[in-house]
Amino acid sequence: MAESLTDDELVTIVDSYKRKKLNPTSSKTADDRDLRVYVNRSVSMERIKYIGFDMDYTLVEYKSPEYEMLCFDMVVKRLISIGYPPEIAGLKYDPTFPLRGLFFDKQYGNLLKADQFGNILSCFHGFKSLTS
Fold first, then answer.
1. Which residue of 17, 33, 95, 104 has the fewest C-beta atoms within 10 A of its own C-beta?
2. Which entry of 8, 32, 34, 54 is annotated as an active-site residue?
3. Residue 26, CA atoms < 13 Å, CB-side half-sphere
4. What pLDDT digit, counting tens, does each position of 53-71 carry?
5. Are both 77 and 107 inside the same structural domain?
6. pLDDT, position 96
7. Dist. CA 22–CA 101, nearest whole Å
8. Angstrom distances, CA of residue 19 to CA of 15, 23, 35
9. 68 — phi, psi (to 5°)?
10. Are 65 and 95 in contact (CB under 8 A)?
C-alpha cells in the first residue's frame, strides 16, 4: 500500500514549493527549464463560474484511491474548520461512489454524472441515488 502523507508533511511540501516559486534560483531543479511547466495563455478568473479538476495524469501520476481518500479527508477537515458540524468527521471515503465527470447543481445540491454528450447517467443527493 502507498505511504500516506500527514498534514504536517503536506504543509512542508507546499511551503517548500512556495519558497522555490518565490526564489527560483535557490534550487537546481527550479533552474532546469526542461522540468518547468508552462501555460500557453493567461486566463482571467473574473467571470469563471466553474472549475473542474482533471486527473488525466498529464503532469503527475496519481495513486488511486489513496489520492482521492486524501482529498476527501482534507475537504472534511476544511469544512469542519469553517463551521460545518463536527459529526461529518465520521463520514468515510467510498471509492465506489462516482467521482469523475460530475457536475454539482448548486440550486438543489445534487451531483450529476453525465456522459460526453451531456446525457445524465445518474444523480445523487448526498449519497442517496435519485431516480426521477
1. 33
2. 54
3. 8
4. 666 656 667 777 888 889 8
5. no
6. 83
7. 34
8. 6, 6, 17
9. -65, -40
10. yes
Does residue 1 fall inside a structural domain? Answer: no
User: How many domains, in total, are found in the chain?
Assistant: 3
Cell numbers that stand for 57 in this block: 495524469
Please indicate whether residue 58 or residue 9 has the higher confidence score (pLDDT).
Answer: 9
Active site residue 32: no
Backbone angles phi, psi at 102, to 5 degrees: -100, 150
Q: How far is 81 from 4, CA to CA, in rounded Å?
A: 22
Beta bridge partners of 125: 110, 128
Instruction: With 0.90 as the threshold, say if the pTM is over it.
Output: no
- In sign, the C-alpha dihedral spanning 60, 62, 68, 69 is negative
Residue 115 annotated in active site:
no
